[in-house]
Amino acid sequence: MTAGRKTLYSIIESPAHPDFSQLYRRLGLEQIRLNSQRKAINELKRTPPDWVVAEFFYGYGNNYAGVNVCNLDVFLYSLQKYAPEAKVIVLVEKPEAQYVPRLAELFTLHAVLTLPVEEKDMQAALDTFS
Predict the structure, then answer these.
(1) What is residue 68's predicted lDDT score, i.e. its pLDDT?
(2) I need a surface site. Which of 62, 91, 106, 125 has the fewest CB within 10 A?
(3) What gap in Å lies between CA 81 and CA 1, rounded to an integer?
(4) In degrees, to the nearest 5, what angle opens at C-alpha 76 toward C-alphas 72 and 77?
(5) How far apart (Å, rounded) are the C-alpha atoms in residues 100 and 112?
(6) How far, in Å, CA of 111 to CA of 77, rounded?
(7) CA-based diameter of the chain, in Å?
(8) How far, in Å, CA of 102 to CA of 26, rounded?
(9) Residue 107: how many other CB atoms lie within 10 Å
(10) Distance (Å, rounded) from C-alpha 47 to C-alpha 40?
(11) Which stretch of DSSP H or E encloses residue 8?
């Protein structure tokens, strides 16, 4: 990581996750691309992020419906410990958007963007954090 640069995690768990690498570079963000929540949790200990961009997947009929809401719960609990000031941008498919408020009851979400997300929408979300 370059000194003084803000770090952004892109947690990419599906092909629907848009690639905004060029936007992040233009905004002076150091992007760390991770392909699983487990890898993201491990990275938290080495390089805490300023921003996180991750996809939301609601847990239908599994443990998520009980203890956890979705795929992000465990990571977001860890984020509170290692990077409590990090801003979280959640990407969600339209049919699952109805479940995001359950996650927002547990964690602060700075933006929720419905897929497909255009670059201008991501830039607007990131600009709100400046």
Answers:
(1) 78
(2) 62
(3) 20
(4) 125
(5) 8
(6) 18
(7) 44
(8) 33
(9) 16
(10) 10
(11) strand 6-11
- Decide: 76 and 42 in contact? Cβ < 8 Å: no
Residue range 98-112, pLDDT digits in tens: 999 999 999 999 999
CA distance 1 to 25: 13
Terminal-residue alpha carbon distance, the chain:
20
Summarize pLDDT for 7-27 with one digit per residue, the tens. Answer: 999 999 999 999 999 999 999
DSSP string covering 48-103:
--SEEEEE--B--SSGGGTT-SBTTHHHHHHHHHH-TT-EEEEEE-GGGGGGHHHH
Taking alpha carbons only, the member of 9, 4, 46 closest to residue 24 is 9
Token pair for 94? 């339209």
What is the side-by-side strand order in the sheet with 6-11? 29-34, 6-11, 51-55, 87-92, 111-114
